[in-house]
Specification:
Layout: E1 6-10, H1 14-25, E2 29-33, H2 37-40, E3 49-50, H3 54-58, E4 63-66, H4 71-81, E5 90-93, H5 98-111, E6 115-118, E7 121-122, H6 125-129, E8 133-138, H7 144-154, E9 155-162, H8 169-198, H9 202-209, H10 217-227, H11 238-254, H12 260-277, H13 292-295
Parallel strand pairs: 1-2, 1-4, 2-3, 4-5, 5-6, 8-9
Antiparallel strand pairs: 7-8
């Protein structure tokens, strides 16, 4: 291919590993790093170079892609990478970091002469593995040629939200989208818990709403993970959903909006995590409807 790039992927968890694999399959040269090296090692079989440090991973990279747990983690890792960052390289920041966090990362990019793209992704494990994520992107028009092949490799669609990534327009849209996803997930868990408590077969509920305006494929898919005891491997983990829910609540508070459902969802996710479900699919917040003894 004529547009082969050297792409550094920092963070190879559920999403990062899938994105790195698809970048390698698209013909790009991938340099992968993860704090726990064992999570990155399998990527060697796909042709990726597994680096021992962030600095090693970003050396000579055309594009640096970060997809870590949160904003502070992304900033810490980029600081470790700083000595080897190439001025003028593109930084695709795909971690869900919140409004304040995206400003801090954009400031780091300016300090180090990086071309900054705010580019969170919408999707979970399955679409990530299939290269069918939706990329929400903001950043300068000049320079997009360096990042669009990356977006094409990991996603089926790129939605550009603006030309100034530092303002976080893509992150803002991601928070709005995640508020809906988290609310729907929490509601799914509560529906199943209430059905169990009242002795109602949840499939009777599904039949009741079938093909009507209340029906939703997402509800059915998440419910089946609980009913079929298929909460691992997680499509999107409880602990990560709890973090995102808190970012949504903070975004609302800082803009004068009270988000009661998001706040309650964050509490449910945190309670489920404390019960031992942190690494399970986020619909495991279902267990937060019961006391800890019963949830076990």
């Amino acid at each position: 291919m004529t547009d082969q790039l050297t792409v550094s992927v920092l963070g190879t968890g559920i999403m990062g590993a899938a994105m790195a694999r698809n970048l390698a399959r698209a013909g790009h040269s991938v340099r992968a790093w993860n704090r726990t090296r064992a999570k990155a090692e399998p990527l060697a079989a796909d042709g990726a170079h597994v680096a021992d440090s962030p600095a090693e991973a970003v050396e000579g990279a055309d594009v640096v892609l970060t997809i870590l747990h949160d904003g502070p983690a992304a900033l810490d890792v980029m600081r470790e990478a700083a000595p080897a960052l190439r001025p003028g390289a593109a930084w695709v920041q795909s971690t869900t970091v919140g409004i304040e966090g995206i400003g801090e990362l954009a400031a780091f990019a300016r300090e180090h002469g990086l071309v900054f793209y705010d580019a969170p992704v919408l999707g979970t494990r399955q679409p990530a593995e299939a290269g069918r994520l939706t990329v929400l992107a903001a950043g300068p028009v000049e320079g997009r040629g360096a990042v669009e092949p990356v977006f094409d490799a990991v996603g089926v669609r790129t939605l550009w939200t603006g030309e100034v990534g530092a303002q976080g327009s893509a992150t803002r849209l991601k928070l709005v989208a995640n508020s809906w996803v988290i609310a729907a997930t929490a509601a799914t868990g509560e529906v199943l818990a209430l059905a169990q408590a009242l002795g109602v077969d949840p499939h009777d509920f599904f039949d009741l709403i079938a093909d009507g305006p209340l029906d939703m494929g997402y509800l059915r898919a998440k419910a089946e993970l609980v009913l079929g005891d298929r909460l691992t491997p997680a499509q999107f983990a409880v602990a990560t959903a709890a973090k995102d829910a808190r970012l949504i609540v903070e975004a609302g508070q800082s803009n004068g909006v009270r988000l009661d459902v998001a706040a309650a969802s964050a509490e449910r996710m945190e309670r489920a995590a404390a019960q031992g479900h942190a690494d399970e699919d986020m619909v495991a917040a279902y267990f937060a409807s019961f006391d800890e003894k019963r949830a076990d």
